[in-house]
Amino acid sequence: MPPNNIFFHTEDISFALESESTTSNWLLKLVESHNKKVGELNYIFCSDDYLLKMNQEHLKHDYFTDIITFDYCEDDWISGDLFISIDRTNENAKTFGKTQINELNRVIAHGLLHLLGFKDKTVKDISEMRRMEAKALNMLDST
Q1: Engineered SS bond to 102: which of 43, 89, 98, 137, CB 3.0-4.6 Å?
Q2: pTM
């Protein structure tokens, strides 16, 4: 039974995950593998334009991005709002020769890894983030 505190929403697009329960179980397993607990996670799937506006308003960045993560974690409780551009993940999938679902799952994990404390500002941090994304995707494959 998937946890009832992981939610999936859409803003300004029509989109649905293939299996919310599989994704929820995977995310719960990922959090627990870091000895943390899921508080409330809201994944909001949206368009490039919607996320660009958020990026401009909240972060003062004027460029497209695939994800913006708002961190509400407290102690060992992992909580946040994660906004993901489906336009951007689809475009990135083409650019990097990945399937759309693989790239989307990588970004879903990427945001959660930020909430778990992983960064991606330095070369070393990016390398560790990529390693953790791969580990997370392998975890999904075994779900």
Answers
A1: 98
A2: 0.94
